[in-house]
């Protein structure tokens, strides 16, 4: 049976070393580039005609646009429109990583903590920088909500600070863990089917059951791919809301 962990190994496609720094083009970078090209091509082709009676691709693109626009507006508010390009790009990046990773011989770059952690740290830095830019040092009032009895603050403030700085960890681990767990399960079940098919005619019949199970898991993983992209995007909206309107 094939090693289910092997699918997560980063491999160099083109070796490149500059001043002792390894900046080789890896399979992870390659599939990020493929995801970029696929998303740009889809949106460009879908919106090329801009018909009054849209076709299927245009409907899909418009629904995707409205879905993200409504999510930003409902979560952040009217002032959150400035963040729409970033949220839309973030959603597409995560979605492409999740969905393309289901293709045979592909690589799921969102199954690596380095990628999801990098995104989470970027979002965390944006929240702090834009929060300070929009509110000044009043931004730190997030850690001391108004209306709380004074004797609660010594306990509440450390809890608020810890919960704030844990955000990048929870945001990155949630996506990484879901993608890795789902792909390992798919690989293990597929391995059972392949092993049974190679064990003889009798076992080949038994191997049909893992195939059906894997088909169901693939459909489930496709759903999870969309849900995890949505969760990552909407949590980003929740965090960015503090840069527009402080919670008291």
Query: How many helix segments?
Result: 7
What do the pLDDT scores average to?
Answer: 85
Number of domains: 1
Q: What's the order of the H and E elements?
A: EEEEHHHHHHH
Radius of gyration: 22 Å
How is the main sheet built? 2 strands, antiparallel
What amount of the residues lies in strands? under 5%
Physical arrangement of strands within the biggest beta sheet: 1-4
Q: What form results from the Cα inertia axes?
A: globular
Structure class: mainly alpha
Pick out the low-confidence regions.
Answer: none
Which percent bin holds the helix content?
55-70%
Distance from first to last alpha carbon:
55 Å
Tell me about this structure:
By secondary structure, this protein is mostly helical. It has one domain (6-244). It has helices at 27-46, 56-76, 84-100, 113-135, 153-197, 201-206, 208-244, and strands spanning 12-14, 17-18, 21-22, 25-26. A two-stranded antiparallel ribbon has the order 1-4. Strands 2-3 form a two-stranded antiparallel sheet. It is globular. The chain starts with 11 loop residues before the first strand and ends with a helix.
Give a quick rundown of the structure.
The protein contains seven helices and four strands, in the order ββββααααααα.
Keywords:
about 250 residues; two-stranded antiparallel ribbon; 4 strands; mainly alpha; 7 helices
